[in-house]
Every structure is written in structure tokens, then in C-alpha cells.
Design goal:
The complex is a heterodimer of chains A (276) and B (286). Chain A is mainly α and 276 residues long. Chain A is 78% helix and 0% strand. In chain A, helix 3 crosses helix 10. The chains are: A mainly alpha (276), B mainly alpha (286).
Chain lengths: 276, 286
């Protein structure tokens, strides 16, 4: 078969493949994107719905910004949101402090126990939340620890360390080591080299890791439900309200958290790009 | 002196992490695995008797929930994969300049609380809600149709919540594939389908496995979708564990069920590490 014949034979096939790439798959992708964003759009739209009974209804009763003005009108709900923010902020800071050195060890050294450490980190990420939550609860019960904000923070640090470690490690692996070596050649002590050279270089990675940790923390429901005791975080409060009806403020707070998350993520992308 | 310090450095750096994960992750998990082998009750205490009988009891008592959880987990994982793969493929190969924008949109659900997302679906799927209500009013569906409380609603919820976790590792794996290899397949007269089945699919296997692992384990252990979207007939293992722990204080049952989930997970991770190596697992996950 000559090449000309082959290309003639391949032509319809080629066209079909191009059409698949040009029309079918993009349309399909947009349909899935639609499916992805529908519940989010619903949340945002219904946060503007009128609700005379103070509970969200399926019927559209008319546009109002009332719930945005009264977003903090339910003290318990506001309290739970504050708890969530405290837990997310402190657990992301603590997990960054613990996770960053771990990431440095994994990225920079070959040592005995490295594979084991990798294995533990991975198991931690993949472990079913019910199992992690249940086992932490039994630890707290057997140590007679009162459950509350502190135990929630401990639990969140436990699942966030792994995320921070992986993100920071990716950043460290991508670094040019000669910059650090130059610092040593110029007489910097290990601490000075770390503080003045390495830390600023990996800072974008640490911030990205903390952002991820914050997002994971503010969203967590299952693990928190085990270790919370009487304390409520935002997801716990919402879950508890499902049976009696959801006040519109929940969707307002959800919308505000969503917007804040998107803005922070975009800022993060921008910073990462500038420093790359 | 310097040499000693360098040799100790990785251990010192990982010390806080090991301390924390050891105390709050490894020890409790191992303790749970061992409680499932103990007999006793909360009042008189437990003795480690290495009785595997608890597993037998649990397997016969919660046989339905276990089968259902694995089934829902498997179906939702497969559904998420089927939905996600063509999209991940298209974004990675044809996304062009807008790759990261597409990816960002697909990850948007991450910014909405998991409980609210599921609640949104409850709104959408409710009997007289936006979707069913409209379809019933225009006569497409009979008035008696309902979706909530059915296995379909729970699996749909699980699939939806799993989608970003599935797309991400798939995209990362497909993105890494060298285009020249795919073109070479074409030059060697492979049809589009052949090139896909014999080049692209195998080369993205690490991502496929990572996606399956993450989603299957998460969904099998989930109980939020079953409680918000399901009914009495859709109880999953997660619901039983949660009830046994928080309401009934039946720790051996909860521990035995947790152990079954954990052993399943460890088996899959072990399998993955055997095939792809541990670092590949982490890369695929984040």
C-alpha cells in the first residue's frame, strides 16, 4: 500500500477523530460542568429566596436580600461558623508547622524509614473518615479527654499534616539546590540559610498547603462529628438542622464561604505564577 | 560533627510529624483493630481475647449493610470514572490555554461545604422540587414518581461528591502522556479506538487506580449521602458505625466494622504500592 492510499484510507477516520475532539467531547465536558455547578448555583440563587417561615422552601417566593442583612441573626449558627473558622485557622497553622519539616525531610534526604513515612502519609489521606473519626473518639474516651474545640483541632491537624506535607514537598522538589548551596558557600549557618534562603523560596508552597488545609478543615463533617462532643461546627449545625428545616442564612453563609474560597484560590494561583 | 548532623537531620525534621501521626493516627487505628478482637462491654471493660467471633456476628448482623456499602461504593466509583474520564481526556489533550480554567471550574464544589452540596441535591431531587416537580407538571413523569430515599438518590449523591476527586488524578495522569507516543500509534496505523485502548488508557492507569482507590474507599465508608438523600432501606456501614459509636456505645461492633473497612483499604493500598510504588500514589493523589 502506498502512503497516498494509506492517507486516503485514514482520512475519514481522521475526520471522525477530529470531530470527536472538536464537538462531541467539548459539549460533553460542558454538560458535566453544568452538572458540577448546578447545586452551587442552586445554593446561591436560593440564598436570595423569600422565606416567610424562616425555613428554605422549594418554591421560588421572590427575590430578597433580607438574609444577607440578617446573616448573623441566628446566634447558634453564627457560633458554629466562628468555631469552624477557629478550627480551620489553628489547624492549618499547626499542620504547616509540623508538615513543613516533614516535607523537607522527605524531599531532601534518602533515609531509612522514608518509605514507611510515605506509606503512613498516604494511608492517612486514603483512610475512610468514619474509621479515623471512630478511632480518635475511642482514644479520647480511653484517655478521659473532654471533647470540644481542642479535640476537633487535634483531629483536623491529624488529617491536614498529610496535605500540607505533600504540597510543600512538591515545591521543595522543584527547587534549584544551587541557590541554597551558594548561601552555605558564603558562610551562612544552616539556620540562616534556612531562614533567609530556603523559607522564602518554599513560602508559596506552605501558603498553598495551608489554604488546602483550611478548605479541608472548614468542610469536614464526618471526622468532626465523632470528636466534637457538644460543640458544633458549621457543617454539624447544618446537618442537625436538616430534619427541622434549613434557615436561609445557611445558604447565605455557604455562598460567602464559596466566594471567599474562590477569591483566595485565585490569589494563590496568581502568587504561585509570579513566584514560579 | 557535620556528618552526624546531616545523618540525623531527616529524623529530627520528621520527629514532630511522626509524633503527631503516631499518637493521633496510628495508635488509635491499631487500638480499634484490637478492640474488634476483644470481648466485654463498656461497664466491665474489655479483654483482648483474640476472638474473631465479633467479625462473625457483625458479618451476619450487618451483612445487608456491608453488601450495600460495597455495592454503592463500587457503582458510584464506576459512574464517576465513566463521567470523568472523557472530560479529563479532553481537557488534558484539547484544553489548550484554558486547561487550568476548566480544571478550576470542575474543582468548584470543593469550595462548597460537603453537607450543603448534598442538601442542594436533596432540594433538586425532592418529590415536588425543581426537577421532579417541573417534569410532573408537564406530564413527563407520573405524579407518583419519587427519587429521594431510593438507592438511586444515594448513588447519585455519592457520584456527584466523588467527581472532583476522580477528575483530578485522571487529569494529572493523562496530562503527563507524551503526545509523540500517541502520534506514533497513529503512524503505525492504529485506529483512534486502538490508540486509545492500547496506548492512552494503559499510560493513564496510575491515575485511574488512584481515582478508584480514593473514591471507592471514601464512598464505601460514607454515611452523609445515605442519611440526607436515602431512606430506611439505604443504610450503609458508615451509618451503623456512627450509630454504634455515638448512640449505642457498642464499641466491638463499631470496631469490627471499622476494621473491615480499614483492612479493605490497606489491601488496596498495598496492591497499588506493589504495582506503582508509594511515591506514584502520592503524586496521583495531589
Amino acid at each position: 500500500m502506498s502512503t497516498a492510499e494509506a492517507s486516503v484510507m485514514a482520512a475519514p477516520r481522521e475526520r471522525r477523530r477530529i470531530q470527536l475532539g472538536r464537538f462531541v467531547l467539548p459539549v460533553y465536558t460542558w454538560l458535566v460542568i453544568l452538572y458540577t455547578v448546578i447545586p452551587i448555583v442552586l445554593m446561591i440563587v436560593y440564598s436570595f429566596n423569600q422565606a416567610p417561615s424562616g425555613r428554605l422552601t422549594f418554591q421560588w417566593l421572590g427575590f430578597t436580600t433580607q438574609w444577607y442583612q440578617q446573616v448573623f441573626a441566628i446566634p447558634d449558627l453564627t457560633n458554629s461558623l466562628v468555631n469552624s473558622l477557629i478550627v480551620a485557622a489553628s489547624s492549618s497553622v499547626i499542620s504547616a508547622i509540623i508538615g513543613t519539616p516533614l516535607a523537607l525531610a522527605l524531599a531532601r534526604y534518602r533515609y531509612r524509614g522514608k518509605n514507611l513515612t510515605d506509606g503512613v502519609i498516604f494511608t492517612n489521606i486514603a483512610a475512610p473518615s468514619v474509621v479515623v473519626g471512630a478511632s480518635l473518639l475511642s482514644l479520647f474516651i480511653s484517655l478521659n479527654v473532654n471533647r470540644g474545640l481542642a479535640t476537633i483541632i487535634i483531629a483536623h491537624v491529624t488529617f491536614n499534616i498529610a496535605f500540607v506535607t505533600i504540597v510543600v514537598r512538591a515545591r521543595v522538589v522543584g527547587l534549584d539546590r544551587s541557590i541554597e548551596r551558594a548561601a552555605y558557600d558564603l558562610g551562612a549557618s544552616p539556620w540562616v540559610a534556612f531562614q533567609k534562603v530556603l523559607l522564602p523560596l518554599i513560602m508559596p508552597g506552605i501558603l498553598a498547603g495551608m489554604l488546602l488545609a483550611f478548605a479541608m478543615s472548614i468542610d469536614d463533617f464526618i471526622i468532626t462529628s465523632f470528636v466534637a462532643g457538644q460543640t458544633l461546627t458549621f457543617p454539624l449545625w447544618v446537618y442537625g438542622a436538616v430534619k427541622v428545616g434549613i434557615p436561609p442564612q445557611v445558604f447565605v453563609m455557604g455562598t460567602l464561604i464559596f466566594l471567599a474560597g474562590v477569591v483566595l484560590a485565585l490569589i494563590n494561583v496568581f502568587l504561585q505564577r509570579r513566584s514560579a | 560533627m557535620r556528618a552526624v548532623r546531616v545523618r540525623l537531620a531527616p529524623y529530627l525534621l520528621s520527629l514532630p510529624g511522626w509524633f503527631w501521626l503516631g499518637l493521633f493516627f496510628l495508635v488509635p487505628i491499631i487500638a480499634v483493630l484490637s478492640v474488634s478482637l476483644q470481648t466485654g462491654n463498656p461497664d466491665t471493660g474489655y479483654n483482648l481475647t483474640w476472638h474473631f467471633s465479633e467479625f462473625g456476628t457483625v458479618l451476619s448482623n450487618y451483612n445487608g449493610e456491608l453488601v450495600r456499602s460495597f455495592l454503592y461504593g463500587a457503582i458510584s466509583t464506576l459512574a464517576a470514572f465513566v463521567i470523568a474520564y472523557p472530560m479529563a481526556y479532553w481537557i488534558a489533550f484539547h484544553g489548550g490555554r484554558h486547561k487550568s480554567t476548566y480544571l478550576f471550574i470542575i474543582l468548584l464544589p470543593f469550595f462548597v461545604s460537603f453537607v450543603i452540596r448534598t442538601l442542594s441535591w436533596q432540594f433538586l431531587l425532592s418529590d415536588n422540587g425543581i426537577v421532579l416537580g417541573t417534569l410532573k407538571n408537564i406530564g413527563v413523569l407520573p405524579q407518583s414518581t419519587h427519587v429521594l430515599s431510593t438507592p438511586f438518590a444515594v448513588i447519585a449523591g455519592l457520584t456527584y461528591n466523588a467527581l472532583p476527586y476522580m477528575v483530578l488524578p485522571l487529569y494529572v495522569a493523562i496530562e503527563k502522556i507524551d503526545r509523540r507516543v500517541v502520534r506514533a500509534a497513529g503512524d503505525l496505523y492504529a485506529s483512534g479506538a486502538q490508540a486509545f485502548a492500547r496506548v492512552i488508557l494503559p499510560l493513564s492507569s496510575a491515575g485511574i487506580f488512584a481515582g478508584f482507590l480514593l473514591v471507592f474507599v471514601t464512598n464505601t465508608g460514607d454515611y452523609v449521602n445515605a442519611s440526607i438523600l436515602g431512606g430506611p432501606g439505604t443504610t450503609m456501614v458508615g451509618n451503623v458505625i456512627q450509630n454504634s459509636y455515638l448512640s449505642n456505645q457498642d464499641y466491638p461492633t463499631a470496631s469490627a466494622l471499622s476494621s473491615i473497612l480499614m483492612v479493605l483499604l490497606l489491601f488496596v493500598i498495598w496492591l497499588y504500592a506493589r504495582v506503582f510504588g508509594t511515591e506514584a500514589v502520592e503524586e496521583a493523589v495531589v
